[in-house]
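Sequence in, structure out.
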Amino acid sequence: MDSKDVHEALQSKEFKTLVSKRWSISIILTILTLAVYFGFILVLAFNKGLLATKIGDHVTIGIPIGVAVIVISWLFTGIYVRWANKVYDPEVHRISEQFKLKKGKGRA
């Protein structure tokens, strides 16, 4: 694709819709990640006793909750990567190929 084709593809309604979906998913996962993280911090700031509750001889409930915050962040990242690999990247490729064929390029 030459630069004119790239510009046309980037300005297409299909691509703009796809980018809008990407932003929506990114914003939702970011907000969820921040809610989990700041929720943990707020509990730590305002209810230390809850996180200091012992669930064993040497472990408090704060440790597994802290680990859960990290794991949830990884999970959200994995959700985004899976979506990007299964939906976003193939759609970008499809739109790109569509513009190549539309312009008569890529045909044997």
